[in-house]
Amino acid sequence: MAPDINPEDALHAVWEGLKSLPDWDVLELPSVYENTVMERLTHLAQKEGYHTGQWALPPLPWITLADRDIEKLPPSSTLRSRLRQGERKLNELGHLSLHTFQRADSGVLQRFYDLEASGWKGEEKSAILCDPRSHQFFNEVAQQSQKFGYLVFYFLELDGKLIAAHFGLNYRRRYYAPKIAYDEDYRQYRVGHLILSKIMRECAKEGIAEYPMGVIEEWKTEWTKESRARTFQCIFNKGARARLLFLIRFQIKPGLKRLMWRWGRQK
Questions:
Q1: pLDDT, tens digit (0-9, with 9 covering 90-100), for 163-175
Q2: What's the CATH number for 66-208?
Q3: Which residue, 47, 56, 54, is CA-closest to 26?
Q4: What are phi and psi of 32, to 5 degrees?
């Protein structure tokens, strides 16, 4: 199990470590939820006289599981009916089962990577296996997540054939899915929705309270109308080059945009 670390102590330790690093000008935090530890990192930098800046990003769709009737998820009764029909038809083809794995086993990882590369991501060369750096990154994420007890793979199998999967993380009563994959030959059965339905039930049993769903996609709107605000945040070092970057990004550019907007209205 992961050690019980005080978030504020960890925050200050991270900030002290960042300040000691040489030759950096700007620290970019590309997706910061509101009221989180990472948001407080920016506040900590501000208190010590560092320039900071931020801009709003599209909100993240979010599923709250705590105190919820899980049998009414997804909220659309039409989608729930279609999922029941899809599961019934799959069970007519063979034995449908959900399996979980909490170790970064090479065989489990390879099965997930192969599934993700089997469809359009493989064709467009955007799958994990198509990029050695991405491959190494997700291998390391899996290894470190296993080490601290966060890792969980969910595999939906039909007679042992992998048809949908989540590369997941359970951390502080939240479920995250950095990568999702499914076999496009089974698209008609809505296996992407079906595995999520089963995962949400497993998460509810394990006391998981929330599922941040990542960037907005049309299919996610069938699962929730709830969202969380987020921002892109920047912390600038105290050197001359860093101060210049701050002026350009948060004073000169916005000023030019306002000037062009006013000029356009006057035309």
A1: 999 999 999 899 9
A2: 3.40.630.30
A3: 54
A4: -110, 120
Least confident residue range of 92-96, 118-122, 138-142, 150-154: 118-122
* Of 63, 87, 82, the residue nearest 73 (C-alpha): 63
Phi, psi of 66 (to 5 degrees): -60, 135
Q: Which residues contact 55 (CB under 8 A, 6 or more apart)?
A: 231, 232
pLDDT digits (tens, 9 = 90+) for 127-165: 999 999 999 999 999 999 999 999 999 999 999 999 999
pLDDT of residue 262: 77
- Rounded CA gap, 64 and 177, in Å? 15
The candidate with the shortest Cα–Cα distance to 8, out of 34, 32, 44, is 44
Identify the burial level of 55 via C-beta atoms within 10 angstroms of its C-beta, where 0-12 means exposed, 13-18 middle and 19 or more buried.
exposed
* Strand 52-64 versus strand 210-212 pairing type: antiparallel
The answer on pLDDT for 267 being more than 70 is: no
Q: Give the residue extent of every domain in the chain.
A: 9-14+24-56+229-266, 66-208
pLDDT at 1: 46
CA distance 227 to 68: 16
- CA angle at 9 for the pair 7 and 13, rounded to the nearest 5°: 115
Domain 9-14+24-56+229-266, second-level architecture? 2-Layer Sandwich (3.30)
Q: What is the DSSP letter of 94?
A: S
What is the arithmetic mean of pLDDT over 62-80? 94
- Whole-number pLDDT of residue 7: 75
